[in-house]
Design brief:
Layout lengths: L2 H30 L25 E3 L5 E5 L6 E3 L12 E3 L4 E4 L13 E3 L4 E4 L13 E3 L4 E4 L3 H9 L4 E3 L4 E2 L11 E3 L7
Parallel strand pairs: 2-4, 3-5, 4-6, 5-7, 6-8, 7-9, 8-10, 9-11, 10-12
Antiparallel strand pairs: 1-2
Length: 196
């Protein structure tokens, strides 16, 4: 292989990494554009940078891919956006204790590397999307103290048998239906709506 071909291959590899990082920055910027941020927590989220790895509350791996978002108790308002499903290597989405509203986008089910999804103490509503059953690496799911309704998708409980799910808290929502606790080997906290 001649040196010119090697340089071309290296250039293609570098451009591929930059494009991938920019797509993650674009996804996060799409979320930021929908959020109200009265405390300027997201001030460092500059979409003109090569990648989002220098932004506060964002952690990246050695390949400059986003693996963690830490936005708990940040006083943010607004929705979760479908673009978050493009963060292919995301392992931790910590957005608890905010004023997030609307539904969980089905695209969150694309985050198959996700280990922890913590959205407790928000104003999220609608059904829990069945696509969350695709999160085969999920170990920690905390959705309590929101306004979710409908039934809990059965494939979430199947994550216990085929995945790593060890903790699931969906209390203080407006779910309907019956959960057979005897079939669960996970720490699950479910509040009976009739107990309120």
């Amino acid at each position: 292989m001649d040196s010119q071909t090697l340089v071309c291959l290296l250039l293609v590899a570098v451009i591929g990494v930059v494009v991938d990082c920019n797509s993650e920055g674009d996804a996060l910027n799409a979320w930021r554009s929908q959020l109200v941020d009265p405390n300027n927590v997201l001030q460092s989220w500059d979409p003109t940078l090569v990648n989002p790895c220098t932004w506060f509350h964002v952690t990246c791996n050695s390949q400059n891919s986003v693996i963690r978002l830490d936005l708990g108790n940040a006083n943010l308002s607004g929705p979760l956006v479908p673009e978050l499903g493009q963060l292919a290597n995301l392992q931790y989405l910590e957005a608890f204790g905010n004023n997030l509203s609307g539904a969980i986008p089905t695209e969150i089910g694309n985050l198959t590397s996700l280990v922890s999804l913590n959205l407790q103490h928000n104003q999220l509503s609608g059904p829990i999307p069945a696509s969350l059953g695709n999160l085969i690496s999920l170990s920690f799911l905390n959705l309590n103290d929101n306004s979710f309704s409908g039934i809990i998708p059965s494939n979430l409980f199947q994550l216990v048998q085929r995945g790593n799910l060890r903790f699931m808290n969906v209390s203080d929502n407006m779910f309907a239906g019956t959960v057979h606790r005897g079939n669960l080997t996970v720490t699950t906290i479910i509040q009976d709506p009739r107990a309120s």
